Amino acid sequence: MPTTDRKAPLGADRDHQVDFDTKVAAKQRIEPRDWMPEGYRKTLVRQISQHAHSEIIGMQPEGDWIASAPSLRRKAILLAKVQDEAGHGLYLYAAAETLGVDRAELTHRLIEGRQKYSSIFNYPTLNYADVGVIGWLVDGAAICNQVPLCRTSFGPYARAMVRICKEESFHQRQGYELLMRMMEGTEAQRAMVQDAVDRWWWPSLMMFGPPDTDSPNTQQSLEWGIKIDTNDALRQKFVDMTVPQAERLGVGLPDPALVWNDERGCHDFGEPDWDEFKQVISGNGPKNAERIERRRAAHEKGAWVREAAIAHADKHRSAREVTV
What is the rounded CA–CA span in Å between residue 144 and residue 147? Predict the structure, then answer.
């Protein structure tokens, strides 16, 4: 049975703890009205809000290319994808709110630098091939990371992930299809794709988080059933999934250590630059300041819409009260 908080609960809380542990061990869902350890709740708030922030911030690097997409079809595809990401963020903020936090407060934590989002979105999109590589590699990594979350122990999070993963899988296929078309094009187009792969490969591996030996929250999250797999296990799965796709695409992956290991039955691969990873998540990546500033500006420009919506709701609430 999993261990939870550091101090053993007393009295009625001990009974609640036993019930919670039993549900988690039986892989049953914990729902918002169920008793849960405070550490469990805080971990979920941190993880779900970071996931939601990532979806919203992630609209920026691809959204910049909507106007520059080379055809009406490509514009429509990219626009639909960016809209999907906005929806994912809303699903996740709603899941976080069931834990007793306010969506507006989570946004303030983000723009004030008190909460993080995925490190991958702090890298620039330099050309249109980046749009395809983000779909293939970044969304591919997201799928590896997020499909297990459909079985996470917290009900609202698990249910939100079912739809999100279906749409992310479609995004990954869209990205791969775009790259296939580009690789069938000119030498310049093929060079663009290879350049984008070279730039996004290592940041994509970093998306899974630090090595298990340097991940302080992993073990507890596994015991609580919040996480299903470790960072390193998910990273390995992603590499093994991606190598044959790269071969079919006709691009090289920028890792001289990448080789199939018959004994292990999976690929050996090099170590990402974890110093770079720490710099990026600390706010010193190529696009950290710009991403947050644009999110802050959008939030401030949208204040009148939120105020109008609240006033409209209050007006109708008052009218119903008078009628009753």
Answer: 6
- Rounded to whole angstroms, the Cα distance separating 85 from 151 reads 21
Alpha helix (H) residue ranges in 26-71:
38-57, 59-63
Distance CA 29, CA 13 (A): 19
Structure tokens of 42?
């805080």
Percent of the chain's residues with pLDDT above 70 = 96
pLDDT tens, 106-131?
999 999 999 999 999 999 999 999 99
Give 288's contacts (C-beta < 8 A, 6+ positions apart). 122, 280
* Burial of 79: CB neighbours in 10 Å, binned 0-12, 13-18, 19+: middle
d(Cα 164, Cα 217) in Å, to the nearest integer? Answer: 24
Q: pLDDT confidence of 6, banded at 50, 70, 90?
A: very low
The DSSP letter of residue 138 is I
**Which residue carries 């479609």 as its tokens?**
170
Rounded Cα distance between 295 and 47, Å, is 19
β-partners of residue 261 are: 266
CA dihedral 155, 157, 160, 164 (to 10 degrees): -140
Would the pLDDT of 170 be above 50?
A: yes
pLDDT tens, position by position, 63-78: 999 999 999 999 999 9
Both tokens of 296, joined, read: 């802050």
